Amino acid sequence: MEQYIIKGGNPLVGDVEICGAKNAALGILAASLMTDETVVIENLPDVSDIKVLIQAMESIGVIVEHLDRHTVKINSSMINSTTVDSVYIKKIRASYYMLGALLGKYGRAEVALPGGCNIGSRPIDQHTKGFKALGADVDISHGHITTAKTGKLNGNHIYLDVVTVGATINIMMAAALAEGKTTIENAAKEPHVVDVANFLNSMGANVKGAGTDVIRIKGVEKLHGTTYSIIPDQIEAGTYMFAAAITMGDVMIKNIIPKHLESISAKLIEMGCQIEEFDESLRVVASKRLKHTQVKTLPYPGFPTDMQPQVVATLSVCDGTSIVTESIFENRFKYVDELTKMGTRIKVEGNSAIIEGVDRLTSASLSAPDLRAGAALVLAALAADGISTIDDIVYIERGYEDFPEKLKNLGAMIEIVSSDQEINKFKLKVG
Ligand code: UD1
Predict the structure, then answer these.
(1) Could you confirm whether 117 is annotated as catalytic?
(2) Is the pLDDT at 156 greater than 80, yes or no?
(3) 3-19+232-430 and 22-229, same CATH topology
(4) Which of 28, 48, 122 to mutate to test ligand 1, by most ligand atoms within 8 A of the CB atom?
(5) Is the preceding omega at residue 404 within 30 degrees of 0, hence cis?
(6) How close is the Cα of 163 to the center of ligand 1, in Å?
């Protein structure tokens, strides 16, 4: 089994290029099947969640041609089934985007119930409420969710009880091809919601207000082909920003939209980092020991829940006592036990972690419990004394393209190893 081996202690210094946003790409790929014309998607990240969704799309007859590592050409005119039962699809949460896309285009969809990272209960009641409001029946049985229109799909007024990215995108897709007007109130405002809306509009949809909490969609009869480039990944960028901070480094994060990173930059400044913003890049410098702060995860433009483990890892070696409160997912502190192996002092009480900063972290053998927690363990290992190993890196590979290579470019000592021989070779190399 492959694992990361990391010798900590090197400040990260240099430039890193950020990929296209995974979570935007998942919505956009699914939405691309809503037209029979050819769609070209650029700046697609090369990560395993994207490969899984592409396989699922291919399993129902979508033709996907890779023009280069980050560009695909998609044709969905040969779809032969609206049932997505690929063994892979259960592994990714975003499989549910196939529901909205297929329902909108064909009036019916059946998809295996979504999986994803194990970070607490992840209901889909707001998705189903939206589909029902548009005039579809929804049935959940035998591990599958089926949604089919009874007559026509008709626009409606939908108030979401919680701010949810997934339901906002799903309803937006189905409504794009429904008859009449749909209003989604209390919609999610995340950059990837806006990106999916922009993509739909580039195919001829009429979606207005994405990025605010009221999205208005006027249904159109059909969508056409397009060429579209995905926005940069806010969470990948944020992860490298915290990697710079935890290692007391100096990193230029390139190919980003600084506005999307404001909540992350603001916290790093509070902790004592210097941030310099440019048009499409941002530099993070940590030149002195950082200090404690308080963080609460919130829907955008608040601090992202997908950055919560990375901030906890970093605060574990800052001066003073910090509190991090998770308000999106109920069970997102399970990785704290892994950090404890490195000498952190973190107590979880309800949905808050109370973090007493320690002087240094020690190396340990760790396992990645999920995607973002896995990234946080990598950051901790980069800052720790000695050599750490991290198992279950498949979770990390779901969302980070070339993670070890990019870190190595910044001066980190990290390798992927799969045998004792390779581990020994690494130890010899790093001394
Ligand atoms: C997406 C992201 C994930 C991120 C999360 C929050 C993708 C593929 N994943 O996940 O990385 O952590 O947004 O920014 O884009 N909820 C309900 N009912 C529903 C749907 C959600 O109660 O029908 C609740 C959830 O339990 C959670 C909150 O709403 O408490 C937010 O969930 P949501 O935004 O839907 O997360 P995902 O779309 O699954």
Answers:
(1) yes
(2) yes
(3) yes
(4) 122
(5) no
(6) 8
Which CA distances in Å does 400 have to 14, 259, 312, 395, 407? 18, 21, 19, 9, 11
Active-site pick, 19, 117, 273, 318: 117
pLDDT at 119 over 70: no
pLDDT in tens, 53-97: 999 999 999 999 999 999 999 999 999 999 997 676 777 888 889
Quote the pTM value: 0.96
Closest ligand 1 atom, residue 97 Cα: 8
Question: Residue 167 Cα, ligand 1 centroid: separation in angstroms?
Answer: 8
Can you tell me whether residue 210 is helix, strand or coil? strand
pLDDT value for 415: 97
Pick the CATH number of 3-19+232-430 from 3.65.10.10, 3.20.20.70, 3.40.50.740, 3.40.50.2300: 3.65.10.10
Q: In this structure, what DSSP letter does residue 287 have? A: -
Q: CATH code for 22-229?
A: 3.65.10.10
Q: How far is the CA of 165 from the centre of ligand 1 (A)?
A: 5
> What does the pLDDT look like over 30-55, one tens digit per residue?
999 999 999 999 999 999 999 999 99
Which tokens hold the place of 16? 């890193």
Q: How high is the pLDDT of residue 121?
A: 64
List, for residues 134-144, the tens digit of each pLDDT value.
999 999 888 88
Angle at 106 between CA 100 and CA 112, to 5 degrees: 50
Which region, left, alpha or beta, applies to residue 294 given φ > 0 means left and ψ of -120 to 50 means alpha? beta
Which pLDDT score, from 0 to 100, does residue 115 have? 58
Give per-residue pLDDT as tens, 95-117. Answer: 889 999 999 999 999 998 765 55
CA of 164 relative to ligand 1 center, distance in Å: 5
Token pair, residue 101, equals 């896309």
Ligand 1 residue neighbourhood (C-beta within 6 Å): 23, 26, 93-94, 122-127, 162, 164-167, 188, 305-306, 328-329
In 10 A of CB 349, how many CB atoms? 9
Burial of 78 (0-12, 13-18, 19+ CB in 10 A): exposed
Q: Please report, for residues 33, 38, 346, the alpha-carbon distance to residue 61 in angstroms, rounded to integers and kept in the order given.
A: 10, 14, 49
